[in-house]
Specification:
By secondary structure, the protein is an alpha/beta fold. It has 15 helices and 17 strands. Helix 3 packs antiparallel against helix 12. Bound molecules: pyridoxal-5'-phosphate.
Length: about 400
């Protein structure tokens, strides 16, 4: 029996903790860049589970390796060896230049691991007072206590205070304030190369220069939070490479498992040297299923032309979005790179997101006035054109309503 949306909503409203403000739709099936709801209606998915379903829905190769692994061995724990952690980690090292990987299950866990490893590094150096962090206004790093402590939004933080002590937030448009915030107590600076939840805002070259300068002068570690930007999303393996940053640690998640919950903290050789058995761990982290899926995703990205596809598709996407911005005054800016794009609006983005969904296109709102677009990395050019056409119609209808 197929449940209707109303059935699902009724049961959920009774039993599920209402931590999410959901849109009125339930999906039952997907294929490539398309999703199908309980009524069989088709949608173009330009949010891909918030940057997660990197290979699109029901990718035949990913489906096959997951099915085969599920039928063979799902999980044994980190008490024992299996081959897939090293397979995925070797690929991550090749792609990033960072020496070693710790596997976990989400972006927030990856950030937690990076914060802990940064403290562990200084502890090992005998600098036990270097425990503090510098983060950016607008940052989002997750919802667990450590990552929430380096997330800026008061709405997320205030009900859960006190958070980690010694976190200083600086305005990303003020490199001087970043330099001033770093003291002899600072363990690390953490920053997303492009702020995702913060409105698709890349770091400025001035801020990048300030991070590089202060880190090299003081030894302060830099943690690149690439949970959203990493793994090909921007057309580069990682966006720190585009900006010229030199991370000692990096948090990854989202795209890595192609839809399975896989996170990773990557460490430079210098930081890796200070971590030993027992310093950190996770029951599920690095399980066979997740890391096999991650290894498969990385093969697609590195050996099967996916990265080059994102570069081409990303350029096309940008052209289409810039053309929309020229036509519709409600769009005041286009930001981002590759297949991570934001349309800055002059108004709240909610009506646009709703109208797009009603027209059959899934996008989302971030930082109130930004429409965020994160299609699958496999998205076809024809679907980019379709999505641009739908957005064109949505903005045209909005302009008519405003005039009435
Ligand atoms: C940059 C960044 N870091 C960390 C996280 C947290 O990841 P997760 O939701 O998998 O815990 C997110 C999630 O949106 C993110 O965008």
């Amino acid at each position: 029996m197929t449940l209707t949306l109303d059935d699902i909503r009724a049961r959920e409203s009774r039993y599920v903790l209402p931590t999410y403000k959901r849109q009125p739709v339930a999906f039952v099936r997907g294929s490539g860049s398309r999703l199908y709801d309980t009524d069989g209606r088709e949608y173009l998915d330009f949010i891909s589970g918030i940057g997660v379903t990197s290979l699109g829905h029901a990718h035949p190769g990913l489906t096959a390796v997951i099915a085969e692994q599920a039928a063979t061995l799902l999980h044994t724990s980190n008490l024992y060896y299996h081959p897939f952690q090293a397979e995925a980690a070797a690929r991550l090292a090749q792609l990033s230049g960072l020496a070693r990987t710790f596997f976990c299950n989400s972006g927030t866990e990856a950030v937690e691991a990076c914060l802990k490893f940064a403290r562990r590094y200084w502890y090992t150096q005998g600098a036990t007072s270097r425990t503090e962090f510098v983060a950016l206004e607008g940052a989002f790093a997750g919802r667990t206590f450590g990552s929430l402590s380096v997330t800026h939004d008061e709405h997320y933080r205030a009900p859960f205070a006190p958070l980690l002590a010694g976190v200083t937030f600086v305005d990303p448009s003020r490199p001087d304030s970043l330099v001033a915030a770093v003291t002899d107590r600072t363990a690390a600076i953490i920053a997303e190369p492009i702020q995702g939840e913060g409105g698709i805002r890349p770091l400025t070259p001035q801020l990048v220069a300030a991070i590089n300068d202060v880190c090299s002068r003081t030894g302060t570690l830099y943690i690149a939070d690439e949970v959203q930007t990493g793994l090909g999303r921007t057309g580069a393996p990682f966006y720190f490479q585009v900006l010229g940053l030199n991370p000692d640690l990096m948090s990854l998640g989202k795209a890595l498992g192609g839809g399975l919950p896989v996170g990773a903290a990557l460490l430079s050789e210098r930081v890796s040297q200070t971590i030993s058995a027992g310093d950190h761990g996770s029951t599920y982290g690095g399980n066979l299923l997740g890391t096999r899926a991650a290894a498969f995703f990385l093969t697609q990205l590195m050996d099967q032309g996916l990265l080059e596809h994102v570069q081409r598709a990303g350029e096309h996407f940008e052209r289409r979005l810039r053309a929309l911005a020229l036509k519709h005054p409600a769009i005041t800016g286009v930001r981002g790179a590759g297949l991570m794009r934001g349309l800055q609006l002059s108004m709240d983005a909610t009506p646009v997101v709703d109208a797009a969904r009603e027209a059959g296109l899934l996008v989302n709102r971030t930082d109130e006035k930004v429409v965020r677009l994160l299609p699958p990395l496999t998205v076809e050019t024809a679907d980019i054109d379709r999505a641009a056409g739908m957005l064109d119609a949505v903005f045209a209808a909005h302009a008519r309503e405003v005039q009435v």
